[in-house]
Amino acid sequence: MIDVRHVTKRFGIGAPAVTALGDVSLVIPEGSFFTLLGPSGCGKTTLLRLIAGFELPSEGEIALDGDPIGHLAPHERPVNTVFQNYALFPHMSVARNIGFGLEMLKRPKSEISTTIEEMLDLVQLGAFASRRVDQLSGGQQQRVALARALAPRPKVLLLDEPLSALDLKLRKGMQSELKRLQHETGITFVFVTHDQGEALAMSDQIAVMSAGAVRQVGTPEQIYTKPQSRFVADFIGDTNIVKADLLGYEGDRALIHFGEGETLAVHAASLSLQPGPVHVAMRPETISILDEGAETALLRGSVIDSTYFGAGSQMRLRLDDGTEVIAQVEHPRAPGSRVGLRCDSAMLHVLED
Amino acid sequence: MTDPVGKKPGLFKRVTGSRELRRQPLFTGISWLVLLFLYAPVAVLIVFSFNDNRSVVRWTEFSLRWYTAALDNGDIRRSALISLEVALTATVFATVIATMAALATARGGAFRGRSAAIALINQPLMIPEIVTAIATLSFFSILRQLTGVTGLGWLILAHTVFCIPFAYMPIRARLSDMPATFEEAAADLYAAPWQVFRHVTLPLLMPGVMAGAMLAFVVSLDDVIITLLVAGPGETTLPIYILGQIRRGVTPEVNAVSTILIAVTVAMVALTFLLQRKRK
Q1: CB within 8 Å: B189 and A100
Q2: Is the pLDDT at B120 greater than 90, yes or no?
Q3: Domain with A125 in it
Q4: Domains identified in chain B, total number
Q5: A285, A301, B53, B266: most buried by Cβ count inside 10 Å?
Q6: Is the predicted pLDDT of residue A85 greater than 80, yes or no?
Q7: Domains: count for chain A
Protein backbone atom coordinates (compact mmCIF):
# COMPACT_ATOMS: atom_id res chain seq x y z
CA MET A 1 0.00 0.00 0.00
CA ILE A 2 1.25 3.44 -0.92
CA ASP A 3 0.18 6.26 1.32
CA VAL A 4 0.69 9.73 -0.13
CA ARG A 5 0.27 12.19 2.73
CA HIS A 6 -0.19 15.91 2.08
CA VAL A 7 2.48 15.97 -0.60
CA THR A 8 3.34 19.30 -2.17
CA LYS A 9 5.94 19.64 -4.92
CA ARG A 10 7.24 23.00 -6.06
CA PHE A 11 9.78 23.50 -8.82
CA GLY A 12 12.04 26.53 -8.61
CA ILE A 13 12.65 28.77 -5.66
CA GLY A 14 10.96 31.98 -4.55
CA ALA A 15 8.48 33.92 -6.63
CA PRO A 16 8.89 32.06 -9.96
CA ALA A 17 8.31 28.69 -8.24
CA VAL A 18 5.71 26.50 -9.90
CA THR A 19 3.53 24.29 -7.75
CA ALA A 20 3.23 20.99 -9.61
CA LEU A 21 1.38 19.25 -6.79
CA GLY A 22 -0.55 21.00 -4.03
CA ASP A 23 -1.22 19.07 -0.83
CA VAL A 24 -2.10 15.75 -2.45
CA SER A 25 -3.23 12.86 -0.30
CA LEU A 26 -3.94 9.47 -1.79
CA VAL A 27 -4.04 5.82 -0.78
CA ILE A 28 -3.06 3.25 -3.39
CA PRO A 29 -4.21 -0.21 -2.25
CA GLU A 30 -1.77 -3.12 -2.39
CA GLY A 31 -2.05 -5.36 -5.44
CA SER A 32 -4.30 -3.00 -7.35
CA PHE A 33 -4.11 -1.56 -10.84
CA PHE A 34 -4.24 2.11 -9.95
CA THR A 35 -4.37 4.83 -12.61
CA LEU A 36 -3.43 8.49 -12.35
CA LEU A 37 -5.54 10.13 -15.04
CA GLY A 38 -5.46 13.73 -16.15
CA PRO A 39 -4.56 16.18 -18.89
CA SER A 40 -0.91 17.05 -19.48
CA GLY A 41 0.47 19.33 -16.79
CA CYS A 42 -1.94 18.07 -14.13
CA GLY A 43 0.89 16.71 -11.97
CA LYS A 44 0.35 13.00 -12.59
CA THR A 45 3.90 12.40 -13.85
CA THR A 46 5.32 14.50 -11.01
CA LEU A 47 3.46 12.29 -8.51
CA LEU A 48 4.86 9.19 -10.24
CA ARG A 49 8.40 10.62 -10.13
CA LEU A 50 7.96 11.40 -6.45
CA ILE A 51 7.00 7.78 -5.77
CA ALA A 52 9.99 6.59 -7.85
CA GLY A 53 12.35 8.97 -6.06
CA PHE A 54 13.46 11.06 -9.07
CA GLU A 55 11.99 14.07 -7.29
CA LEU A 56 11.75 14.77 -3.59
CA PRO A 57 8.60 16.26 -2.06
CA SER A 58 8.73 19.89 -0.96
CA GLU A 59 6.31 19.01 1.81
CA GLY A 60 4.58 15.86 2.98
CA GLU A 61 5.59 12.20 3.07
CA ILE A 62 5.10 9.08 1.01
CA ALA A 63 4.88 5.74 2.83
CA LEU A 64 5.16 2.27 1.34
CA ASP A 65 3.61 -0.41 3.57
CA GLY A 66 3.93 1.98 6.48
CA ASP A 67 7.61 2.85 5.94
CA PRO A 68 8.36 6.42 4.91
CA ILE A 69 10.19 6.38 1.55
CA GLY A 70 9.60 9.94 0.35
CA HIS A 71 13.19 11.02 0.94
CA LEU A 72 15.08 7.89 -0.09
CA ALA A 73 17.18 7.79 -3.28
CA PRO A 74 15.63 5.92 -6.23
CA HIS A 75 17.96 2.94 -5.80
CA GLU A 76 16.87 2.54 -2.18
CA ARG A 77 13.18 2.07 -3.01
CA PRO A 78 11.60 -1.30 -3.88
CA VAL A 79 9.83 0.43 -6.74
CA ASN A 80 10.55 0.08 -10.47
CA THR A 81 9.53 2.21 -13.40
CA VAL A 82 8.55 1.61 -17.02
CA PHE A 83 9.53 4.83 -18.77
CA GLN A 84 7.53 6.54 -21.46
CA ASN A 85 10.31 6.04 -24.00
CA TYR A 86 11.42 2.80 -22.32
CA ALA A 87 14.99 4.04 -21.63
CA LEU A 88 16.42 0.61 -22.44
CA PHE A 89 20.21 0.62 -22.15
CA PRO A 90 21.37 0.74 -25.79
CA HIS A 91 24.78 -0.74 -25.02
CA MET A 92 23.40 -3.93 -23.44
CA SER A 93 21.62 -6.98 -24.80
CA VAL A 94 17.97 -7.68 -24.04
CA ALA A 95 18.97 -10.23 -21.39
CA ARG A 96 21.45 -7.90 -19.67
CA ASN A 97 18.83 -5.13 -19.64
CA ILE A 98 16.37 -7.45 -17.91
CA GLY A 99 18.98 -8.71 -15.47
CA PHE A 100 20.36 -5.24 -14.65
CA GLY A 101 18.27 -4.68 -11.51
CA LEU A 102 19.17 -8.07 -10.03
CA GLU A 103 22.83 -7.55 -10.99
CA MET A 104 22.85 -4.27 -9.05
CA LEU A 105 21.19 -6.04 -6.12
CA LYS A 106 24.14 -8.50 -6.19
CA ARG A 107 21.92 -11.54 -6.56
CA PRO A 108 23.65 -14.85 -7.42
CA LYS A 109 24.35 -15.42 -11.12
CA SER A 110 22.14 -18.52 -11.25
CA GLU A 111 19.19 -16.63 -9.83
CA ILE A 112 19.70 -13.81 -12.31
CA SER A 113 19.75 -16.09 -15.35
CA THR A 114 16.69 -18.03 -14.13
CA THR A 115 14.78 -14.79 -13.60
CA ILE A 116 15.80 -13.45 -17.01
CA GLU A 117 14.38 -16.59 -18.62
CA GLU A 118 11.18 -16.38 -16.59
CA MET A 119 10.75 -12.76 -17.54
CA LEU A 120 11.43 -13.41 -21.23
CA ASP A 121 8.72 -16.09 -21.10
CA LEU A 122 6.36 -13.81 -19.22
CA VAL A 123 6.57 -11.15 -21.93
CA GLN A 124 6.85 -13.74 -24.75
CA LEU A 125 10.28 -12.68 -25.99
CA GLY A 126 12.11 -15.97 -25.39
CA ALA A 127 13.97 -15.87 -28.70
CA PHE A 128 15.32 -12.35 -28.26
CA ALA A 129 17.61 -12.71 -25.23
CA SER A 130 20.85 -11.92 -27.04
CA ARG A 131 19.47 -9.25 -29.37
CA ARG A 132 20.53 -5.65 -29.07
CA VAL A 133 17.65 -3.45 -28.01
CA ASP A 134 17.82 -1.27 -31.13
CA GLN A 135 17.04 -4.36 -33.22
CA LEU A 136 13.59 -4.63 -31.61
CA SER A 137 10.31 -3.10 -32.69
CA GLY A 138 8.52 -0.56 -30.49
CA GLY A 139 6.17 -3.18 -29.09
CA GLN A 140 9.04 -5.53 -28.30
CA GLN A 141 11.04 -2.76 -26.61
CA GLN A 142 7.95 -2.03 -24.54
CA ARG A 143 7.84 -5.64 -23.36
CA VAL A 144 11.57 -5.65 -22.55
CA ALA A 145 11.03 -2.49 -20.50
CA LEU A 146 8.25 -4.26 -18.63
CA ALA A 147 10.35 -7.36 -18.06
CA ARG A 148 13.29 -5.26 -16.86
CA ALA A 149 11.12 -3.43 -14.35
CA LEU A 150 9.38 -6.60 -13.14
CA ALA A 151 12.51 -8.77 -12.84
CA PRO A 152 13.56 -7.51 -9.37
CA ARG A 153 9.98 -8.20 -8.22
CA PRO A 154 9.33 -4.69 -6.92
CA LYS A 155 6.53 -3.95 -4.48
CA VAL A 156 5.23 -1.34 -6.87
CA LEU A 157 5.54 -0.97 -10.64
CA LEU A 158 5.24 2.57 -11.97
CA LEU A 159 4.21 3.01 -15.60
CA ASP A 160 4.61 6.45 -17.16
CA GLU A 161 2.32 6.58 -20.22
CA PRO A 162 4.00 3.43 -21.49
CA LEU A 163 1.52 2.87 -24.31
CA SER A 164 1.55 6.35 -25.79
CA ALA A 165 4.38 5.57 -28.24
CA LEU A 166 2.59 2.54 -29.71
CA ASP A 167 0.11 2.53 -32.56
CA LEU A 168 -3.56 1.91 -31.83
CA LYS A 169 -3.62 -1.82 -32.55
CA LEU A 170 -0.51 -2.59 -30.48
CA ARG A 171 -1.85 -0.38 -27.72
CA LYS A 172 -5.05 -2.44 -27.42
CA GLY A 173 -3.00 -5.64 -27.26
CA MET A 174 -0.66 -4.22 -24.62
CA GLN A 175 -3.63 -3.07 -22.50
CA SER A 176 -4.80 -6.63 -21.96
CA GLU A 177 -1.17 -7.79 -21.67
CA LEU A 178 -0.58 -5.30 -18.84
CA LYS A 179 -3.76 -6.40 -17.05
CA ARG A 180 -2.67 -10.02 -17.37
CA LEU A 181 0.83 -9.22 -16.01
CA GLN A 182 -0.62 -7.30 -13.09
CA HIS A 183 -2.96 -10.19 -12.33
CA GLU A 184 -0.24 -12.85 -12.61
CA THR A 185 2.37 -11.01 -10.56
CA GLY A 186 0.04 -9.46 -7.98
CA ILE A 187 2.32 -6.38 -7.92
CA THR A 188 0.73 -2.96 -7.37
CA PHE A 189 0.69 -1.13 -10.71
CA VAL A 190 0.56 2.66 -10.73
CA PHE A 191 -0.27 3.69 -14.26
CA VAL A 192 -0.12 7.23 -15.60
CA THR A 193 -2.18 8.18 -18.63
CA HIS A 194 -4.11 11.04 -20.19
CA ASP A 195 -6.32 8.61 -22.12
CA GLN A 196 -9.59 8.15 -20.26
CA GLY A 197 -10.58 5.14 -22.40
CA GLU A 198 -7.35 3.39 -21.41
CA ALA A 199 -7.92 4.28 -17.76
CA LEU A 200 -11.48 3.01 -17.73
CA ALA A 201 -10.55 -0.23 -19.50
CA MET A 202 -7.60 -1.19 -17.31
CA SER A 203 -7.90 0.16 -13.80
CA ASP A 204 -9.20 -1.17 -10.51
CA GLN A 205 -9.17 2.41 -9.31
CA ILE A 206 -8.65 5.77 -10.98
CA ALA A 207 -7.50 9.05 -9.49
CA VAL A 208 -8.54 11.91 -11.75
CA MET A 209 -6.11 14.82 -11.43
CA SER A 210 -6.05 18.41 -12.62
CA ALA A 211 -3.94 21.44 -11.81
CA GLY A 212 -1.81 19.65 -9.23
CA ALA A 213 -4.74 18.21 -7.26
CA VAL A 214 -6.64 14.93 -7.09
CA ARG A 215 -10.23 15.66 -8.08
CA GLN A 216 -11.80 12.26 -7.58
CA VAL A 217 -10.76 8.72 -6.71
CA GLY A 218 -12.95 5.76 -7.53
CA THR A 219 -13.56 2.66 -9.57
CA PRO A 220 -13.93 3.19 -13.33
CA GLU A 221 -17.70 2.76 -12.91
CA GLN A 222 -17.89 5.34 -10.14
CA ILE A 223 -15.83 7.80 -12.14
CA TYR A 224 -17.89 7.20 -15.25
CA THR A 225 -21.40 7.18 -13.78
CA LYS A 226 -20.93 9.44 -10.75
CA PRO A 227 -18.42 12.10 -11.68
CA GLN A 228 -18.09 14.46 -8.77
CA SER A 229 -17.18 17.68 -10.49
CA ARG A 230 -17.67 19.36 -13.82
CA PHE A 231 -14.00 18.83 -14.54
CA VAL A 232 -14.21 15.05 -14.08
CA ALA A 233 -17.49 14.77 -16.00
CA ASP A 234 -16.01 16.82 -18.82
CA PHE A 235 -12.69 14.98 -18.89
CA ILE A 236 -14.14 11.47 -18.84
CA GLY A 237 -16.04 12.53 -21.92
CA ASP A 238 -19.41 12.33 -23.64
CA THR A 239 -21.38 13.28 -20.55
CA ASN A 240 -23.71 16.22 -21.05
CA ILE A 241 -23.43 18.99 -18.51
CA VAL A 242 -26.74 20.82 -18.17
CA LYS A 243 -27.69 23.80 -16.04
CA ALA A 244 -30.43 23.41 -13.40
CA ASP A 245 -31.69 25.06 -10.22
CA LEU A 246 -30.93 23.46 -6.88
CA LEU A 247 -33.93 24.00 -4.61
CA GLY A 248 -32.76 22.14 -1.53
CA TYR A 249 -32.33 18.64 -0.17
CA GLU A 250 -34.59 15.78 0.79
CA GLY A 251 -32.63 13.24 2.77
CA ASP A 252 -29.52 12.43 0.71
CA ARG A 253 -31.17 13.57 -2.51
CA ALA A 254 -30.91 16.98 -4.11
CA LEU A 255 -34.08 18.60 -5.38
CA ILE A 256 -33.55 20.16 -8.77
CA HIS A 257 -35.67 21.89 -11.34
CA PHE A 258 -34.87 22.51 -15.01
CA GLY A 259 -37.15 25.50 -15.48
CA GLU A 260 -40.13 23.43 -16.51
CA GLY A 261 -41.62 20.07 -15.71
CA GLU A 262 -41.57 18.55 -12.27
CA THR A 263 -39.04 18.88 -9.48
CA LEU A 264 -36.67 15.90 -9.40
CA ALA A 265 -34.91 14.25 -6.46
CA VAL A 266 -31.49 13.21 -7.74
CA HIS A 267 -28.08 12.06 -6.54
CA ALA A 268 -25.61 14.80 -5.71
CA ALA A 269 -21.81 14.77 -5.51
CA SER A 270 -22.04 16.87 -2.37
CA LEU A 271 -24.84 17.74 0.03
CA SER A 272 -23.27 21.04 0.95
CA LEU A 273 -23.91 22.91 -2.29
CA GLN A 274 -25.79 26.17 -1.88
CA PRO A 275 -29.27 26.32 -3.44
CA GLY A 276 -29.16 28.18 -6.75
CA PRO A 277 -27.79 27.43 -10.21
CA VAL A 278 -25.89 24.13 -10.44
CA HIS A 279 -24.61 21.81 -13.15
CA VAL A 280 -26.06 18.36 -13.67
CA ALA A 281 -24.44 15.43 -15.48
CA MET A 282 -26.74 13.73 -17.95
CA ARG A 283 -25.47 10.66 -19.83
CA PRO A 284 -26.40 10.56 -23.55
CA GLU A 285 -27.89 7.07 -23.31
CA THR A 286 -30.34 8.11 -20.56
CA ILE A 287 -32.01 10.87 -22.57
CA SER A 288 -35.35 10.29 -24.30
CA ILE A 289 -36.64 12.56 -27.03
CA LEU A 290 -40.25 13.73 -26.89
CA ASP A 291 -42.40 15.97 -29.05
CA GLU A 292 -41.90 19.65 -28.39
CA GLY A 293 -45.31 20.07 -26.78
CA ALA A 294 -45.02 17.06 -24.46
CA GLU A 295 -45.96 18.05 -20.88
CA THR A 296 -43.47 15.65 -19.33
CA ALA A 297 -40.51 17.36 -21.05
CA LEU A 298 -37.86 18.70 -18.70
CA LEU A 299 -35.91 20.62 -21.33
CA ARG A 300 -36.57 21.86 -24.83
CA GLY A 301 -34.32 22.48 -27.80
CA SER A 302 -33.73 21.87 -31.46
CA VAL A 303 -31.83 19.16 -33.33
CA ILE A 304 -28.47 20.15 -34.84
CA ASP A 305 -27.67 16.88 -36.60
CA SER A 306 -27.42 13.16 -36.04
CA THR A 307 -24.87 10.43 -36.79
CA TYR A 308 -25.82 6.82 -37.35
CA PHE A 309 -23.46 4.37 -35.66
CA GLY A 310 -25.09 0.98 -36.07
CA ALA A 311 -26.58 0.29 -32.67
CA GLY A 312 -28.45 3.59 -32.86
CA SER A 313 -27.87 7.22 -33.67
CA GLN A 314 -26.11 9.99 -31.86
CA MET A 315 -28.06 13.24 -32.01
CA ARG A 316 -26.62 16.65 -31.28
CA LEU A 317 -29.13 19.11 -29.86
CA ARG A 318 -29.01 22.75 -28.83
CA LEU A 319 -31.06 23.48 -25.70
CA ASP A 320 -32.95 26.76 -25.49
CA ASP A 321 -30.34 28.16 -23.08
CA GLY A 322 -27.66 27.50 -25.71
CA THR A 323 -26.11 24.39 -24.15
CA GLU A 324 -25.18 21.68 -26.62
CA VAL A 325 -26.08 18.13 -25.60
CA ILE A 326 -25.71 14.69 -27.14
CA ALA A 327 -28.39 12.01 -26.97
CA GLN A 328 -28.22 8.39 -28.06
CA VAL A 329 -31.50 7.39 -29.61
CA GLU A 330 -32.95 4.70 -31.83
CA HIS A 331 -34.98 6.99 -34.02
CA PRO A 332 -33.33 10.36 -34.67
CA ARG A 333 -35.36 13.45 -35.51
CA ALA A 334 -34.66 15.61 -38.53
CA PRO A 335 -32.14 18.46 -38.11
CA GLY A 336 -33.83 21.71 -37.22
CA SER A 337 -36.90 20.11 -35.64
CA ARG A 338 -38.00 21.25 -32.18
CA VAL A 339 -38.08 18.57 -29.47
CA GLY A 340 -38.58 18.07 -25.77
CA LEU A 341 -36.11 16.11 -23.64
CA ARG A 342 -36.57 13.93 -20.64
CA CYS A 343 -34.10 12.00 -18.60
CA ASP A 344 -34.28 9.13 -16.15
CA SER A 345 -33.91 10.95 -12.82
CA ALA A 346 -32.06 8.00 -11.28
CA MET A 347 -29.25 8.67 -13.74
CA LEU A 348 -28.99 12.39 -13.12
CA HIS A 349 -26.21 13.65 -10.96
CA VAL A 350 -25.52 17.11 -9.50
CA LEU A 351 -21.88 18.14 -9.92
CA GLU A 352 -19.58 20.26 -7.82
CA ASP A 353 -18.13 23.13 -9.77
CA MET B 1 11.45 29.85 -52.06
CA THR B 2 10.56 30.62 -48.47
CA ASP B 3 12.78 29.17 -45.82
CA PRO B 4 10.79 26.65 -43.78
CA VAL B 5 12.69 27.42 -40.61
CA GLY B 6 11.52 25.41 -37.64
CA LYS B 7 9.07 23.33 -39.64
CA LYS B 8 11.30 20.90 -41.44
CA PRO B 9 14.74 21.02 -39.91
CA GLY B 10 17.64 18.87 -40.98
CA LEU B 11 17.94 17.35 -44.39
CA PHE B 12 15.20 19.21 -46.22
CA LYS B 13 16.40 22.63 -45.18
CA ARG B 14 20.00 21.81 -45.84
CA VAL B 15 19.37 20.56 -49.37
CA THR B 16 17.39 23.62 -50.44
CA GLY B 17 19.88 25.85 -48.64
CA SER B 18 22.92 24.48 -50.42
CA ARG B 19 21.17 24.58 -53.80
CA GLU B 20 20.36 28.27 -53.25
CA LEU B 21 23.94 28.91 -52.22
CA ARG B 22 25.40 27.12 -55.21
CA ARG B 23 23.46 29.40 -57.56
CA GLN B 24 25.26 32.48 -56.20
CA PRO B 25 27.77 34.00 -58.62
CA LEU B 26 31.40 33.04 -58.06
CA PHE B 27 30.38 30.33 -55.58
CA THR B 28 32.33 27.59 -57.34
CA GLY B 29 35.33 29.78 -58.06
CA ILE B 30 35.70 30.99 -54.48
CA SER B 31 35.28 27.47 -53.16
CA TRP B 32 38.09 26.17 -55.31
CA LEU B 33 40.36 29.08 -54.40
CA VAL B 34 39.80 28.44 -50.69
CA LEU B 35 40.49 24.74 -51.10
CA LEU B 36 43.59 25.50 -53.18
CA PHE B 37 45.16 27.81 -50.60
CA LEU B 38 44.21 25.50 -47.74
CA TYR B 39 45.60 22.31 -49.15
CA ALA B 40 48.05 23.13 -51.96
CA PRO B 41 50.87 24.00 -49.51
CA VAL B 42 50.32 20.74 -47.69
CA ALA B 43 50.24 18.87 -50.96
CA VAL B 44 53.50 20.50 -52.06
CA LEU B 45 55.11 19.62 -48.74
CA ILE B 46 54.02 16.00 -49.03
CA VAL B 47 55.10 15.71 -52.67
CA PHE B 48 58.60 17.10 -51.98
CA SER B 49 59.05 14.82 -48.99
CA PHE B 50 59.27 12.05 -51.61
CA ASN B 51 61.76 13.97 -53.77
CA ASP B 52 65.16 12.38 -54.39
CA ASN B 53 66.92 15.71 -54.14
CA ARG B 54 68.07 18.23 -51.57
CA SER B 55 65.90 20.90 -53.10
CA VAL B 56 62.34 21.53 -52.02
CA VAL B 57 61.39 23.39 -55.20
CA ARG B 58 62.75 21.23 -58.01
CA TRP B 59 61.46 17.67 -58.55
CA THR B 60 63.83 14.97 -59.76
CA GLU B 61 62.49 11.51 -58.91
CA PHE B 62 60.57 9.52 -56.29
CA SER B 63 62.46 8.32 -53.23
CA LEU B 64 61.96 7.41 -49.60
CA ARG B 65 65.50 8.48 -48.64
CA TRP B 66 64.30 11.45 -46.51
CA TYR B 67 62.03 9.20 -44.52
CA THR B 68 64.92 6.85 -43.87
CA ALA B 69 67.08 9.80 -42.94
CA ALA B 70 64.43 11.22 -40.63
CA LEU B 71 63.88 7.90 -38.87
CA ASP B 72 67.65 7.42 -38.52
CA ASN B 73 68.07 10.87 -37.00
CA GLY B 74 68.49 10.49 -33.24
CA ASP B 75 67.33 14.04 -32.51
CA ILE B 76 64.09 13.48 -34.40
CA ARG B 77 63.47 10.18 -32.64
CA ARG B 78 64.14 11.68 -29.23
CA SER B 79 61.91 14.72 -29.80
CA ALA B 80 59.17 12.50 -31.23
CA LEU B 81 59.27 10.38 -28.08
CA ILE B 82 59.10 13.46 -25.86
CA SER B 83 56.17 14.73 -27.92
CA LEU B 84 54.37 11.41 -27.48
CA GLU B 85 55.08 11.25 -23.77
CA VAL B 86 53.84 14.78 -23.18
CA ALA B 87 50.80 14.38 -25.45
CA LEU B 88 49.71 11.03 -24.05
CA THR B 89 50.07 12.01 -20.40
CA ALA B 90 48.46 15.41 -20.88
CA THR B 91 45.61 13.76 -22.82
CA VAL B 92 44.86 11.32 -20.02
CA PHE B 93 44.82 14.02 -17.33
CA ALA B 94 42.93 16.54 -19.46
CA THR B 95 40.30 13.99 -20.48
CA VAL B 96 39.66 12.83 -16.92
CA ILE B 97 39.34 16.43 -15.70
CA ALA B 98 37.18 17.42 -18.68
CA THR B 99 34.88 14.44 -18.09
CA MET B 100 34.43 15.43 -14.47
CA ALA B 101 33.78 19.03 -15.50
CA ALA B 102 31.24 17.93 -18.11
CA LEU B 103 29.44 15.73 -15.58
CA ALA B 104 29.30 18.56 -13.07
CA THR B 105 28.04 21.14 -15.56
CA ALA B 106 25.61 18.90 -17.47
CA ARG B 107 24.37 16.59 -14.73
CA GLY B 108 25.09 18.37 -11.46
CA GLY B 109 21.80 20.26 -11.45
CA ALA B 110 21.62 24.04 -11.32
CA PHE B 111 24.34 25.02 -8.88
CA ARG B 112 25.40 28.58 -8.23
CA GLY B 113 28.00 29.75 -10.71
CA ARG B 114 27.37 27.01 -13.26
CA SER B 115 27.34 29.41 -16.21
CA ALA B 116 30.49 31.02 -14.87
CA ALA B 117 32.11 27.59 -14.57
CA ILE B 118 31.28 26.73 -18.19
CA ALA B 119 32.64 30.08 -19.35
CA LEU B 120 35.83 29.64 -17.30
CA ILE B 121 36.44 26.17 -18.72
CA ASN B 122 36.06 27.44 -22.30
CA GLN B 123 37.80 30.78 -21.83
CA PRO B 124 41.34 29.53 -22.59
CA LEU B 125 40.17 28.99 -26.20
CA MET B 126 39.60 32.73 -26.47
CA ILE B 127 42.83 33.94 -24.82
CA PRO B 128 45.70 34.50 -27.30
CA GLU B 129 48.08 31.59 -26.93
CA ILE B 130 51.13 33.83 -26.65
CA VAL B 131 49.54 35.48 -23.58
CA THR B 132 48.86 32.09 -21.98
CA ALA B 133 52.41 31.07 -22.85
CA ILE B 134 54.06 34.09 -21.27
CA ALA B 135 51.79 33.89 -18.21
CA THR B 136 52.55 30.20 -17.80
CA LEU B 137 56.26 30.85 -18.24
CA SER B 138 56.45 33.42 -15.45
CA PHE B 139 54.07 31.52 -13.17
CA PHE B 140 56.01 28.29 -13.59
CA SER B 141 59.32 30.08 -13.02
CA ILE B 142 58.03 31.20 -9.64
CA LEU B 143 56.76 27.72 -8.81
CA ARG B 144 60.00 26.09 -9.99
CA GLN B 145 61.99 28.39 -7.75
CA LEU B 146 59.71 27.86 -4.77
CA THR B 147 59.54 24.09 -5.06
CA GLY B 148 62.88 23.35 -6.58
CA VAL B 149 61.18 20.74 -8.77
CA THR B 150 62.32 20.50 -12.38
CA GLY B 151 61.61 18.12 -15.23
CA LEU B 152 59.09 17.23 -17.90
CA GLY B 153 56.22 17.44 -15.39
CA TRP B 154 55.91 21.20 -15.89
CA LEU B 155 55.50 20.86 -19.62
CA ILE B 156 52.94 18.10 -19.13
CA LEU B 157 51.07 20.29 -16.65
CA ALA B 158 51.00 23.20 -19.11
CA HIS B 159 49.72 20.92 -21.89
CA THR B 160 47.09 19.38 -19.63
CA VAL B 161 45.71 22.81 -18.84
CA PHE B 162 45.32 24.04 -22.42
CA CYS B 163 43.98 20.64 -23.56
CA ILE B 164 41.08 20.67 -21.06
CA PRO B 165 38.68 22.89 -23.04
CA PHE B 166 39.30 20.87 -26.21
CA ALA B 167 38.50 17.63 -24.41
CA TYR B 168 35.57 19.23 -22.58
CA MET B 169 33.62 20.35 -25.67
CA PRO B 170 32.80 16.99 -27.30
CA ILE B 171 32.26 15.29 -23.91
CA ARG B 172 29.80 17.90 -22.77
CA ALA B 173 28.07 17.91 -26.18
CA ARG B 174 27.57 14.16 -25.97
CA LEU B 175 26.34 14.38 -22.38
CA SER B 176 23.85 17.13 -23.24
CA ASP B 177 22.49 15.03 -26.11
CA MET B 178 22.13 12.02 -23.84
CA PRO B 179 18.73 11.86 -22.16
CA ALA B 180 19.01 11.62 -18.38
CA THR B 181 16.36 8.88 -18.38
CA PHE B 182 19.05 6.21 -18.95
CA GLU B 183 20.65 7.22 -15.69
CA GLU B 184 17.28 7.49 -13.98
CA ALA B 185 16.42 4.00 -15.21
CA ALA B 186 19.67 2.65 -13.78
CA ALA B 187 19.10 4.36 -10.42
CA ASP B 188 15.55 3.01 -10.47
CA LEU B 189 17.02 -0.48 -10.94
CA TYR B 190 19.01 -0.23 -7.70
CA ALA B 191 22.29 1.14 -9.10
CA ALA B 192 24.01 3.41 -6.58
CA PRO B 193 25.38 6.67 -8.05
CA TRP B 194 28.87 5.30 -8.82
CA GLN B 195 27.32 2.16 -10.36
CA VAL B 196 25.13 4.36 -12.55
CA PHE B 197 28.27 6.10 -13.73
CA ARG B 198 30.23 2.89 -14.33
CA HIS B 199 27.51 0.82 -15.99
CA VAL B 200 25.48 3.43 -17.85
CA THR B 201 26.85 6.99 -18.02
CA LEU B 202 30.46 6.16 -18.90
CA PRO B 203 29.75 3.48 -21.56
CA LEU B 204 27.22 5.75 -23.26
CA LEU B 205 29.55 8.74 -22.94
CA MET B 206 32.55 6.83 -24.34
CA PRO B 207 32.36 8.13 -27.95
CA GLY B 208 32.43 11.67 -26.56
CA VAL B 209 35.30 10.85 -24.21
CA MET B 210 37.32 9.29 -27.04
CA ALA B 211 36.62 12.27 -29.30
CA GLY B 212 37.69 14.63 -26.52
CA ALA B 213 40.84 12.63 -25.85
CA MET B 214 41.84 12.64 -29.51
CA LEU B 215 41.28 16.36 -29.90
CA ALA B 216 43.37 16.93 -26.78
CA PHE B 217 46.09 14.62 -28.13
CA VAL B 218 46.28 16.40 -31.48
CA VAL B 219 46.27 19.85 -29.88
CA SER B 220 49.07 18.84 -27.52
CA LEU B 221 51.08 17.16 -30.28
CA ASP B 222 50.88 20.28 -32.48
CA ASP B 223 51.60 22.89 -29.85
CA VAL B 224 54.51 25.26 -30.45
CA ILE B 225 54.12 28.56 -28.62
CA ILE B 226 53.48 27.40 -25.05
CA THR B 227 55.95 24.54 -25.43
CA LEU B 228 58.60 26.87 -26.79
CA LEU B 229 58.43 29.05 -23.67
CA VAL B 230 57.76 26.42 -21.01
CA ALA B 231 59.97 23.52 -22.15
CA GLY B 232 63.23 23.21 -20.29
CA PRO B 233 66.56 22.06 -21.75
CA GLY B 234 66.37 18.58 -23.26
CA GLU B 235 62.61 18.80 -23.52
CA THR B 236 62.45 19.52 -27.24
CA THR B 237 59.24 18.27 -28.76
CA LEU B 238 58.89 17.41 -32.43
CA PRO B 239 57.29 20.73 -33.51
CA ILE B 240 60.01 22.64 -31.69
CA TYR B 241 62.69 20.53 -33.35
CA ILE B 242 61.14 21.16 -36.77
CA LEU B 243 61.00 24.86 -36.02
CA GLY B 244 64.68 24.80 -35.14
CA GLN B 245 65.56 23.01 -38.39
CA ILE B 246 63.48 25.44 -40.48
CA ARG B 247 65.72 28.31 -39.36
CA ARG B 248 68.46 26.70 -41.39
CA GLY B 249 66.17 26.36 -44.42
CA VAL B 250 63.53 23.89 -45.34
CA THR B 251 64.97 20.45 -45.95
CA PRO B 252 63.25 17.40 -47.40
CA GLU B 253 63.90 15.70 -44.08
CA VAL B 254 61.68 18.23 -42.34
CA ASN B 255 59.10 17.64 -45.07
CA ALA B 256 59.18 13.92 -44.34
CA VAL B 257 58.73 14.43 -40.58
CA SER B 258 55.96 16.95 -41.20
CA THR B 259 54.23 14.49 -43.51
CA ILE B 260 54.31 11.84 -40.79
CA LEU B 261 52.92 14.38 -38.33
CA ILE B 262 50.14 15.29 -40.77
CA ALA B 263 49.32 11.62 -41.30
CA VAL B 264 49.05 11.02 -37.55
CA THR B 265 46.94 14.14 -37.02
CA VAL B 266 44.59 13.38 -39.92
CA ALA B 267 44.18 9.81 -38.72
CA MET B 268 43.30 11.01 -35.22
CA VAL B 269 40.82 13.62 -36.43
CA ALA B 270 39.20 11.14 -38.82
CA LEU B 271 38.87 8.62 -36.01
CA THR B 272 37.30 11.31 -33.83
CA PHE B 273 34.60 12.03 -36.41
CA LEU B 274 33.94 8.34 -36.94
CA LEU B 275 33.51 7.82 -33.20
CA GLN B 276 31.20 10.78 -32.92
CA ARG B 277 29.01 9.55 -35.76
CA LYS B 278 28.83 6.06 -34.35
CA ARG B 279 25.69 5.41 -32.29
CA LYS B 280 24.23 8.80 -33.16
Answers
A1: yes
A2: no
A3: 2-225
A4: 2
A5: A301
A6: yes
A7: 2
